[in-house]
Amino acid sequence: MSNAFDAIILGAGAAGLMCAARAGQRGKRVLVLERAEKPGKKILISGGGRCNFTNIGAGPANYLSVNPHFAKSALARYTARDFLDLVESYGIAWHEKTLGQLFCDGSARQIVDMLLAECAKGDVEVRCDADVTAVEHEAGRFAVMASGHIVTAPSLVIASGGPSIPKMGATGFAYDLARQFGLKVVEPRPALVPLTLGGEEVLFREISGVSAPVIASAGKTSFPEAALFTHRGLSGPAILQASSYWEPGEPIVINFLPDLGSGWLLERKRDMPRGTFKQVLRELLPDRLADILAHRLGIPAELGNASDKALRSAEERLSRWEFRPNGTEGFAKAEVTVGGISTAELSSKTMESRKVPGLYAIGEAVDVTGWLGGYNFQWAWASGVAAGDSL
Ligand code: FDA
């Protein structure tokens, strides 16, 4: 078994497998090293086992990065349609769930099998149970130590992901390696993550399990989707999305009644003065949520007895309810990581380091983070292709 390759890819996740397949099919001798016992573990658990493998509307606006322009080139050159063509060429049945999110009809395993078949077409070697612990760079070659073996290549791709879900073996290895080579790392933090509530907001834990369609905002960014109350705070797609933009100390603002125009509560007062505020809210929101909001707004029993001023203020609060999360549920529960290897260090066309020729970084390891809904895999495919075509 020769230990010299054209390219070594660290991590057999979404980005690493895609990159390996492309480079292998271009005739490169490619080795993928994976510390886990099998490739593509995050793909297998993604999308509830059905893998939300892309989003048909994926574009640069759906990503967070210190440099929001960085992802443009790779996303334009390998689009959601390109990945869908690949999926269809393997006869994998799929469906659009909502908001452009594409899932397998069958199982996420089909996506992993497809990527492995693409790797096989390029004679890529995928070695599992190969934990990369050290890398050296000398005379234009990278020497990689993995589970007691040393392999070498003139090109090395960091595709080892971010630290979200450490239970699955995720680590900050990509960042350590980047720093070793003098590449800057944007402070990583958990994203697409549930938020925790403290102080008197813990009272909302009483309604754990209740969800409602809302608009959740963090700073200037808003997401119209469902919010879910949990035994620790807030979750659900709208909150997970907003969490990526949330800064500690800042509020998450929720519009509980996004479909109602201004003045709706005064209209109700005119139409049903004997009705109670709680009754009105129960018609619009799940009962337990309506009750807790009504209680906290403290409107007297019958609408007819409430002043217009009080009703206007209640309406305003229902459309701009401020929660002050005291934290997140951390990397243990985060679907992705915001931050990572700085894009300033990389070519947006090839993902190659500007400082260290032959060193590449792709996927979640890089400071490009997608919204919930297939965007993160699309970045993994697109950045993997960008590097794979350049190796
Ligand atoms: P990824 O984490 O997939 O792969 C990195 C690989 O490197 C891993 O296999 C790891 O074991 C390996 N590795 C790490 N350190 C190593 C070392 N030292 N030596 C060797 N190997 C090493 N996204 C989306 O678009 N749609 C979805 O449906 C979902 N669903 C989803 C569910 C859950 C529960 C999570 C946690 C995440 C998602 N995501 C998602 C996000 C998506 O999984 C994520 O963005 C991609 O997997 C990132 O792909 P990468 O290849 O960059 O990293």
Could you name the CATH homologous superfamily of the largest domain?
FAD/NAD(P)-binding domain
Q: How large is the share of residues in beta strands?
A: 15-25%
Identify the CATH class of the largest domain: Alpha Beta
CATH architecture of the largest domain: 3-Layer(bba) Sandwich
Describe this entry's structure for a reader.
By secondary structure, this protein is of the alpha+beta class. It folds into two domains: 7-189 and 336-388, FAD/NAD(P)-binding domain; 195-328, Translation factors (Elongation Factor Tu (Ef-tu), domain 3, Beta Barrel), CATH 2.40.30. 29% of the residues lie in helices and 24% in strands. It has twelve helices and 22 strands. The strands form six sheets. A seven-stranded antiparallel beta sheet has the order 18-17-14-15-16-13-19. The longest helix is centred in the C-terminal third of the chain and has 14 residues, at 375-388. The model has no long low-confidence stretch (mean pLDDT 96). It binds dihydroflavine-adenine dinucleotide. The site of dihydroflavine-adenine dinucleotide has 39 residues, from helix 1, helix 2 and helix 12.
